[in-house]
Amino acid sequence: MPTPARTPAPAAPAATARPRRAATALVWALAAAVTATAFTLGLPRLVESRTEATPRAVTPRGPLLAEEQNQIEIFRKTSPSVVHITTLETQRDFFSLNVQQVPRGTGTGFVWDERGHVVTNFHVIQGASAARVTLSDQSTHQASLVGAFPDRDLAVLKIDVPAAKAPPLPLGTSRDLVVGQKVYAIGNPFGLDQTLTTGIVSALNREIESVNQRTIRGVIQTDAAINPGNSGGPLLDSAGRLIGVNTAIYSPSGGSAGIGFAIPVDEINRIVPRLIRDGRFVRPAIGVTAGPTALHQALRLPRGVALVQVAPGSPAARAGLVPFRRGSNGEVVFGDVITEVNGEPVADLDDMLAQLERRAPGDTVTLTLWRAGSTRKQPVVLAPGD
Questions:
Q1: May I ask the CATH architecture of the domain 182-278?
Q2: 232-272: per-residue pLDDT in tens?
Q3: So what's the architecture of 78-158 in CATH?
Q4: Of 81, 84, 117, 153, which residue is the catalytic one?
Q5: Which helix (H) or strand (E) covers residue 91, if one does?
Q6: What's the pTM?
Q7: What is the CATH number of domain 284-384?
Q8: Is 238 a catalytic site residue?
Q9: By C-alpha distance, which of 144, 125, 150, 113 is closest to 283?
Q10: Which residue is catalytic, options 81, 84, 117, 123?
Q11: Marked catalytic residue, from 174, 202, 210, 231
Q12: Is the fold of 78-158 the same as that of 182-278?
């Protein structure tokens, strides 16, 4: 006779449930104990009488230090001249096809003159379709682009406001700066407007690259905190005068690492008036094309600018400059190498352009020329560049 299948004994689930109930009870007990302890420690005890308590008296601090007073006065006088720049770009909605302007980035600038010209870095407005300028009184104004010079990372905007609302910064000089003197930076780091940081001139005559890989020379290095958003803001001396435009930081992390760079004000004062007048910086030219570094190495030429082309009718052509060329048999016929401009050595084309930028079209410069081992000096009248 077949044996009926056995029904599993119901004792096992009941046995499992008892430890679970015990564990749950233990957890609740521990929670209650912790809560009771927290309330015991966190709430003041109820006592019959309390000691009378009053706020502590403030200790008088005395007058501010002279350095503090000077910093406060510098910020008070100069901050109305520092502006917050918001750049915009045009975008088209994918579905509605509506065109609108949206914020693209932010930066800093400062008022240059009573006519509402604002100086900032070129990279602050690069690629933007429009820009707005916010003054220290939080009023916002549409800005128009007056001119730009990417080689020195400079741009000039213009806003239409009364001079009383946007006073220009006092102008200083950078030629007499010394390492160790106090400096102040005002800007809008990370969108936090009207921020003052302090430091010193850490070094002079540094070199950095502009947005188009041109070398900017004579740059001021400072340890005043400069962060993203400070670009285009002023670097001031202890008299509250403009001595530079904050333009870059050296930081692997992207934040201030105590190494910031500012374009010297003497360079600003040379370039900005031309941008306001012409809308661009018209570089003086002599009408030559420079050869590559490989040409110097292959022919063992001296340091300078080896000419591989002289434009017909250019100042260089009129002065008799001759380029390197191939002879009828394929041999190299030596031309001129420019080694000095007005007695100052030039190592390469970038050096020569920097020398020429200090002059204006119509000025005469004296070039030192090397050709096939002999040297001569030749005056050249500069012409407007393209």
A1: Beta Barrel (2.40)
A2: 999 999 999 999 999 876 666 666 667 899 999 999 998 99
A3: Beta Barrel (2.40)
A4: 153
A5: strand 82-92
A6: 0.71
A7: 2.30.42.10
A8: no
A9: 150
A10: 123
A11: 231
A12: yes
